[in-house]
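Quick one: sequence plus fe (ii) ion SMILES, need structure tokens.
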Amino acid sequence: MHGKLYEYFESDHRRIEGLLNRATEKSGEFEMKAYGEFRAGLLRHIGLEERILFPAAQKVKGGEPFPSLPKLRLDHGALTALMVPPPTHAILAAIRAILAAHDALEESPDGPYDVCETLAGKDVDVLLEKVRNAPAVPVLPHRSEPFVLDATRRALARAGYNFEDYENVSSGIKEKLSPTNHTAKTKSRK
Ligand SMILES: [Fe+2]
Ligand SMILES: [Fe+2]
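Reply:
Sure thing.
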């Protein structure tokens, strides 16, 4: 049985997945309001882990990084980079694949959530309070310049992923929302 810190992060994973599913439930389209909520949720979640949880887990280990820390950090870099350009089916395929493995690693017995649960009960409560009270992170508008996608490809490559692998998964579905459609859809749902 897991503790409350683990449960907080695990249920945040499921909430974020739900937002992503809602954003993409209509075949061939992105629901941009839900995608915006997904983006804000994922960026806040990553911020909580990087600023609060991972340092706490490292402290538990006497200052040594826990085994999955380098991989989890590289994944965070790739996921954050994937939040910058407007969504395409290739970007969505990459997000889904990276998140599925990443979340499973964090939820594994040696992952940072269980490591933090070994803290004394009082310390877990303090950590959870910090996490719950952390504010939303600012989310900047999408950028669609070519250098942005190049930077995203490089962030994925650093984490061991090849963006081209995801560009071939969307056959039969319209590959991209044009910037015009993207803007129109976002505005129409306000
Ligand atoms: Fe994470
Ligand atoms: Fe997480």
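The chain is about 65% helix and 0% strand. Residues 32-60 form the longest helix (29 residues).
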